[in-house]
Write a structure and sequence with these properties.
Layout lengths: L1 E7 L6 E5 L6 E5 L6 E7 L8 E6 L26 E2 L8 E7 L2 H8 L7 E8 L4 H9 L2 E2 L2 E2 L4 E5 L19 E8 L6 H8 L4 E9 L2 E2 L8 E3 L4 H42 L14
Parallel strand pairs: 7-13
Antiparallel strand pairs: 1-4, 2-3, 5-7, 5-15, 6-7, 8-12, 8-13, 9-10, 11-12, 13-14
Amino acid sequence: MKTRYKVFKNLNVDILTLTHANDRTRLRFHLIPNLINLTFLIWIKHFTMPKLILLNKPFDVLTQFTDEDGRKTLKDFVSMSGVYPAGRLDRDSEGLVLLTDSGPLQHLISDPKHKLEKTYWVQVEKVPSDDSLEQLRNGVELKDGLTRPAKAELIEAPTVWDRTPPIRERQSIPTQWIELKITEGKNRQVRRMTAAIGHPTLRLIRYAIGDWTLDNIASGEWQQVSVPASILSMIKSSNDLDSKNYRRRDNRTKQSISDRRGRNKRKNDDQPARRSSRVRRKPN
C-alpha cells in the first residue's frame, strides 16, 4: 500500500528516522544535504493503520473464505479483501467475528494467553439452578481439562434477529437464556460446558469480544472500526518484547558460534605443525 509523507527539516539535519507505532519496523533515510523539502513514497504496509472489521455472522456460515463443498463462507458477506478472521466461530453459532489485516492484532485477539473476554448469549434447555451456574463460574471438567472460571448469569431473552432455520423447541421443556463470559477458546467450549451441567445449548450467539460488540450490526452485516490506542500500545509492547527476545537469541547464537571457533582454533594450536611432504625431482 502506498503512503505519502512530506518532510520539512532544518538544514543541519541529515538523517530522518521513522518508527511505526504498531510495529518494530524502523526505517532510516539519509537526506540530501541542504534539502529542506523532501517528498518520498514508502511502499510498505507497516506504515498504515490496521484494518478491523466487525461481522455479525449468521447461522450455518463457515468462518473462512473458501469451501470446496460449496457451503456459505465469509466471502458471501465480507466484500473487503485482505482481511482474515481473528479466531473462529462454529458454523452452527452466530454473532461477532473480528477480521483484520494485521498479524499482531489477529494474534492478540485470538491467543488465549491475552485473556480477552468473550461474551456469549446462550439459549439452553430448562432453567439452570444456582448450583449449575456456580459450576460454570468455578470451572467445568471437560475431556481436555478444567475450564477457567467464567462469569455466568441468567438473563431475559435478548432482542435479536430470527434464526434461519429456527431452533427446535419442545412445549413440555422450557428454555432459558444465559450470559456467559469466558477468557479461553477450547473447541466448542460453551456447548460442552452447558451440556456438562445438564443444559444442552439450543442457540449460541457471541455478543462481544473485549469491548467490541454486535450493537447496531444486523445479522449478515459488517462495519469497519478503528483500533483503540490501548490495543495498539499492547501490540507495540508485544512487538518490542519479541524484538528483545529475538536479539537475545541472536546474540547467544553468535556467541556460541564464536566460542566454537575459538575452541577449534585453540585445539588446532595445540597440535604440532606438520611439515608438508616434498617431492624430490630427479635432475634432468
